């Protein structure tokens, strides 16, 4: 309480900052910045931590709703394949929130790019299958807890680096995730624009409500991208407000999958854009579905079978996460494993993925210093030019104010299953309940620093912890 | 989330009645100590959620200005005060036509907050508004602080001033299971279980409507901090069923759901819980304005004896944030 350090001199750093060695900035988005830090606490000594700083909301309306939503969801969930929130800090100086996560060295965006640009070779089958299985496992957990992620894309799928969780997938970035006890309105109604390449066709056609099937479409797109190293449907985004019709994105989908028909997708005719834009959408006819040739899979293979079920037009027929986990693809060799990056089978070559670049010129408040901080370790400097060019294009997530209650789906939630002897929860710690204790014991000793190397070409955009969509032309 | 079992509500916010008593006594005693030390109990809250104690009493004591300390609230007066403002939350939410869920979450936030603080430290009127505001944010029914403040003629700055403190005090455990939603579920289930014909449906509609009012009552008691929401719902439905002369055989319905869930608990255990909830509801007394006046005067005296200085400080503090309302604060 009242632990505000003396103001003046502009250096009233919050006390909790002392728990960390700040190494630098690793990502940026409209919500704020992501830093890499190392824990100085005895219990977690030298453990790498990613700290996501949320800017305070600009419109003078208190704490950022995106931050609140991300924290409250992460507080409720716990799964090996979902990123772990270890602490929440408040910077008293500017009322911003800092979320501390276990640090993940890699993400699928960088893994795919490394293969495309450096290795010049596709990702081995074992790795693709293990990554996909774990992604589905995390998603199945979320969906069975009635959470839709809504913004799955390669840069939000993290992969742990060296340590006892090496090669484990972590789904990240829950700023847009929602609990769907009640029907969810389209994000566009909240003035939010997300990546269109992974957006499901029903949303592109103006469906009014989200279902968990939108996440499965994105998984299908990511699966294809892991196979080919290129985004499957790389449409050109129409930038307009509110909720512009993304014709080019749909066109890209139709070209590969063929035109949707009412026989295959009965509710198609009810979708707003399908009805209103007959000339453009219904006019185009693509009849040679070429998905298998596009992803280079034999049409009879189990991999193709699973992929095509994820990219099913009708969201009601699209495979669910739990069904996908049971698919034959995961029962045939090579079987998926926990360490997706290192196969236990002999003979498989292990790829060394580069460490995330760190921009050491930005401090915790997000101010860029002309002179870099003296570093406490031998960290490679990131490419400054690219750090400076980080410009976000995504509008701030904000909700509007519909005062009308949404219809509720009746269920027995919290019902009789809640009949129980009340558990005697731990009391609040003293008068300052802010610090959510770090729950995981036994910090693994990360020795990433030795592996860290200069990745001069990469810069730091899209470094996994970002939300922004930079132009990615290949 | 669908799973109350793994929720933070079950893990962190369901207590025994002894624990509730302990926490509230501790908060009350801390405020009393503050009063003795500083001559006032009100804590100042900064925008960032940090809390400051009033100026030490020493100076004024030395000057001989103060001879006796103002009287402080006891635990039962604090309790009355909380019930009064929890009821106010319901009234405000009704006036704004917010869905039940918002009202339910706001009341639970308020209850959780005052497990850690005394009403003498943070005025419940302010905390009430901030809880409604936070609940709207969480339930995606975003209303700006300004709009909320305007609707009830209160300075919206106090809402924002306390927001971080409220979120912090709840450890950011913001997903709340209120007993409203499951009313629908249980009633649908009753209709199925007892194979109700169409001619009977209106009775179940009445059962449902009254159960909502019964849940409203139980939200004003300690029950939401003691029992899982499903039990609050069942207790409300049972009271509603009794009032309607027994639309269904409730005991049998309880047996049906217990056997279906393969619950490790017995029907008698469940009935003990429902009875305990009923007892809390029957003891509920919403204090009238008149009763409140006495307690409120006491609160003003002990929390803010030098309210004159206070308002000056507050003005200074909110200067950088609220340009619009500056100078027309309703405080």
UniProtKB/TrEMBL annotation, chain A:
<dbReference type="InterPro" id="IPR017441">
    <property type="entry name" value="Protein_kinase_ATP_BS"/>
</dbReference>
<comment type="similarity">
    <text>Belongs to the protein kinase superfamily. CMGC Ser/Thr protein kinase family. CDC2/CDKX subfamily.</text>
</comment>
<keyword id="KW-0723">Serine/threonine-protein kinase</keyword>
<dbReference type="InterPro" id="IPR008271">
    <property type="entry name" value="Ser/Thr_kinase_AS"/>
</dbReference>
<dbReference type="InterPro" id="IPR050108">
    <property type="entry name" value="CDK"/>
</dbReference>
<dbReference type="InterPro" id="IPR011009">
    <property type="entry name" value="Kinase-like_dom_sf"/>
</dbReference>
<dbReference type="GO" id="GO:0008353">
    <property type="term" value="F:RNA polymerase II CTD heptapeptide repeat kinase activity"/>
</dbReference>
<dbReference type="Pfam" id="PF00069">
    <property type="entry name" value="Pkinase"/>
</dbReference>
<dbReference type="GO" id="GO:0016592">
    <property type="term" value="C:mediator complex"/>
</dbReference>
<feature type="compositionally biased region" description="Polar residues">
    <location>
        <begin position="458"/>
        <end position="474"/>
    </location>
</feature>
<feature type="domain" description="Protein kinase">
    <location>
        <begin position="20"/>
        <end position="330"/>
    </location>
</feature>
<protein>
    <submittedName>
        <fullName>Cyclin-dependent kinase E-1</fullName>
    </submittedName>
</protein>
<dbReference type="GO" id="GO:0005524">
    <property type="term" value="F:ATP binding"/>
</dbReference>
<dbReference type="GO" id="GO:0004693">
    <property type="term" value="F:cyclin-dependent protein serine/threonine kinase activity"/>
</dbReference>
<keyword id="KW-0808">Transferase</keyword>
<dbReference type="GO" id="GO:0004674">
    <property type="term" value="F:protein serine/threonine kinase activity"/>
</dbReference>
<dbReference type="GO" id="GO:0005634">
    <property type="term" value="C:nucleus"/>
</dbReference>
<feature type="region of interest" description="Disordered">
    <location>
        <begin position="435"/>
        <end position="474"/>
    </location>
</feature>
<feature type="binding site">
    <location>
        <position position="53"/>
    </location>
    <ligand>
        <name>ATP</name>
    </ligand>
</feature>
<keyword id="KW-0547">Nucleotide-binding</keyword>
<dbReference type="InterPro" id="IPR000719">
    <property type="entry name" value="Prot_kinase_dom"/>
</dbReference>
<keyword id="KW-0067">ATP-binding</keyword>
UniProtKB/TrEMBL annotation, chain B:
<dbReference type="Pfam" id="PF00134">
    <property type="entry name" value="Cyclin_N"/>
</dbReference>
<dbReference type="GO" id="GO:0016538">
    <property type="term" value="F:cyclin-dependent protein serine/threonine kinase regulator activity"/>
</dbReference>
<dbReference type="GO" id="GO:0006367">
    <property type="term" value="P:transcription initiation at RNA polymerase II promoter"/>
</dbReference>
<dbReference type="InterPro" id="IPR013763">
    <property type="entry name" value="Cyclin-like_dom"/>
</dbReference>
<comment type="similarity">
    <text>Belongs to the cyclin family.</text>
</comment>
<feature type="domain" description="Cyclin-like">
    <location>
        <begin position="87"/>
        <end position="168"/>
    </location>
</feature>
<keyword id="KW-0195">Cyclin</keyword>
<dbReference type="InterPro" id="IPR043198">
    <property type="entry name" value="Cyclin/Ssn8"/>
</dbReference>
<feature type="region of interest" description="Disordered">
    <location>
        <begin position="296"/>
        <end position="331"/>
    </location>
</feature>
<feature type="compositionally biased region" description="Basic residues">
    <location>
        <begin position="314"/>
        <end position="331"/>
    </location>
</feature>
<dbReference type="InterPro" id="IPR036915">
    <property type="entry name" value="Cyclin-like_sf"/>
</dbReference>
<dbReference type="InterPro" id="IPR031658">
    <property type="entry name" value="Cyclin_C_2"/>
</dbReference>
<dbReference type="GO" id="GO:0005634">
    <property type="term" value="C:nucleus"/>
</dbReference>
<dbReference type="InterPro" id="IPR006671">
    <property type="entry name" value="Cyclin_N"/>
</dbReference>
<keyword id="KW-0132">Cell division</keyword>
<protein>
    <recommendedName>
        <fullName>Cyclin-H1-1</fullName>
    </recommendedName>
</protein>
<dbReference type="GO" id="GO:0070985">
    <property type="term" value="C:transcription factor TFIIK complex"/>
</dbReference>
<keyword id="KW-0131">Cell cycle</keyword>
<dbReference type="Pfam" id="PF16899">
    <property type="entry name" value="Cyclin_C_2"/>
</dbReference>
<dbReference type="GO" id="GO:0051301">
    <property type="term" value="P:cell division"/>
</dbReference>
<dbReference type="GO" id="GO:0006357">
    <property type="term" value="P:regulation of transcription by RNA polymerase II"/>
</dbReference>
